[in-house]
Design a protein that fits this description.
alpha/beta; Rossmann fold; seven-stranded parallel beta sheet; five-stranded parallel beta sheet; 12 strands; binds 1,4-dihydronicotinamide adenine dinucleotide
């Protein structure tokens, strides 16, 4: 029996994990709390921890898990910027779910854009009160507009296809452009200056943190629409707010927010929101915020559970070897030795 402490568990996580867990000798300890230095003790007696995007898996947490005999950190997400993979090296294996439904995220990105640009959120509220006025609801055609896509991986590429379906002109920036993809790659500066819509689909790294800052916004077209379904810290939210107040940014659609960890995923409707910046952004008529919801489809939840359970079983049955293992050296193409199973450790 493999015992797994499942942190930050939500009602929608349980059915799929219980289903796939029951197909193997896996027992989940569902914990509503997030993993951090104060809660790590709850993983005692467990062989693995299963974590999500806002769990804190820093060096101190990893050392504690290691001292308790935990052998595996199983992320049930694609992004892993919340895990100190370097600190885990040589101590605990780290696995993730590289893809579960890139369609879910790409489709949510377009849903946000359409909602914002065609003012659907406002129309919905108006007609519920029998207000059938169209004043203030004017949008713009997507057809013929230029969308700048930053990050042309799995999600970015699907989003590009969706945009092309709308007759949009697509330009893109990626640190590692996809060869023979037919995508028009440009520099970041050119993307900023030419795009009517900018959509972020790259990972959060030291390099990409605050890639949308005051200087970047300065280079953009007046009225640009920015959509972020990737990671909050790609955008300097204060600079974004300033850009909105200055009428430079036409609209912002945010599924992620830099300081989301203690706010998103919970019902805070009865509480005073302590984050002034988020409250101000939400109060803007041209900002739409969803609460890290882009992944949330039935298909994605099933795929996440199936792959995560598969990762855990694979690791324990094959002496730590799993195709979805993360290695901090893997980003270092030059020095990667790929000694074992295409991985470097
Ligand atoms: P992917 O790994 O397939 O693609 C990422 C792309 O970003 C790659 O083409 C890579 O070359 C590029 N990239 C890396 N460094 C870059 C840089 N410095 N500048 C520009 N591009 C760079 O990842 P995928 O599956 O497309 O996911 C993208 C991001 O979406 C994830 O990193 C994650 O943060 C976010 N995500 C958000 C979800 C949500 O619910 N809101 C759910 C799943 C992922």
């Amino acid at each position: 029996m493999i015992k797994v402490a499942f942190f930050d568990a939500k009602a929608y996580d349980r059915p799929s994990f219980e289903h796939y867990g029951s197909m193997h000798d896996l027992q989940f300890r569902f914990l509503e709390t997030k993993l951090n230095e104060d809660t790590v003790e709850l993983a005692r007696d467990c062989d693995a921890v299963c974590v999500f995007v806002n769990d804190t898996v820093n060096a101190a947490v990893i050392d504690k898990l290691y001292s308790m005999g935990v052998k595996l950190i199983a992320l049930r997400s694609a992004g892993y910027n919340n895990v100190d993979v370097q600190a885990a090296f040589g101590k605990i294996h780290v696995v993730h779910v590289p893809a579960y439904s890139p369609y879910a995220v790409a489709e949510h990105t377009m849903a946000l854009l359409l909602t914002s640009v065609r003012r659907i959120h406002k129309a919905y509220n108006r007609t519920r009160e029998f207000n059938f006025s169209l004043n203030g609801l004017t949008g713009f055609d997507f057809h013929g507009k230029t969308v700048g896509v930053i990050g042309t991986g799995k999600i970015g590429r699907i989003f590009i296809d969706i945009c092309r379906g709308f007759g949009m002109k697509v330009i893109a920036y990626d640190r590692f452009p996809a060869r023979d993809s037919g995508i028009e790659y440009v520099t970041l500066d050119e993307l900023f200056s030419r795009s009517d819509v900018i959509s972020l689909h790259c990972p959060l790294t030291d390099e990409t943190r605050h890639m949308i800052d005051a200087a970047a916004i300065e280079k953009m077209k007046k009225g640009v629409v920015i959509v972020n379904t990737s990671r909050g810290a790609l955008i300097d939210a204060e600079a974004l707010l300033e850009g909105i107040k200055a009428r430079k940014i036409g609209a912002a659609c945010l599924d992620v927010y830099e300081e989301e960890a203690d706010i998103f995923f919970e019902d805070r409707s009865g509480h005073i929101l302590n984050d002034e910046l988020l409250a101000r952004l939400i109060s803007m008529p041209n900002v739409i915020v969803t609460s890290h919801q882009a992944f949330l489809t039935e298909e994605a939840l099933n795929n996440i559970a199936e792959t995560t359970v598969g990762n855990i079983v694979s690791c324990f049955e094959h002496d730590g070897i799993c195709d979805n293992e993360l290695c901090y050296r893997c980003g270092d193409i030059e020095h990667c030795k790929k000694e074992r199973k295409e991985k470097c450790f």
